[in-house]
Design brief:
By secondary structure, this protein is mainly α. The chain has two helices and no strands.
Amino acid sequence: VEELQEEVAELKEKLKHSEDASAAEVERYSAACARLAEVEREYEEMKLTLKNTQGLSKQSSEKLQESENFALRIKQQLEELEREKNAKIQEMAAEHKAHRERLEQHIENMEKARQEQIEELERQRHEMEEIYRKRLEDAEKKLDEAKEMHRSQSALLEVAMKEKESAPKRELERMQKAKEEFEVLHKEQEEKLNRKDNAVMVASLQDMSALLENEAKKREELSEERKKWMEQLNEKERELEEARSSSEGEEKVWFCIFYK
């Protein structure tokens, strides 16, 4: 009986030990289940996070591709603007050069025409001086001839008067009257020649004044026209400089947009 009691006590001890072990195993199992549930929850969260990350990565890739495409379009637009700017500047430079050459050629032609006009005026002045000199020489020659004729006729009258000293008084008065009339006629002829010479001189001076006035007017017109050409030339240069400045400003704007 004691052996049986000992066996029963031993069996109870083993049963209790087994129950304790089972309780520990159940507790470990419950903890393992809880841990497994937590791991599964974390796994689901990780799957969701991975899925979201893949979506964000895809969106980032799409945005990156869009950014690269936008950058490529900006680069192409910048290259196109650069080509257009260079073409425009070259075109404006060519137009400016052609306009400047035309102006320089026109100025050269005007200077040449002005020089020809000056030479023509000088030639006309020399011709007028020669004509006036010849007319003056002719007038002086005629005046000398008239004076010589007057002296000759006066001498003849003096001789005739001396020869007629014994003639009647009436004849002397007639001869004296003829002498006075001849002197009056000589004086009128001399005044007429002087007036003619003065008229020729005045006409020549008037012609020269008109020519000089015309030349001064032409010089003033040429100066005004040259001033206008220089203003046009400066305006073209200013437009060319503005085009260059505006193209540089566009490059800076596109550069800021691209790198922003």
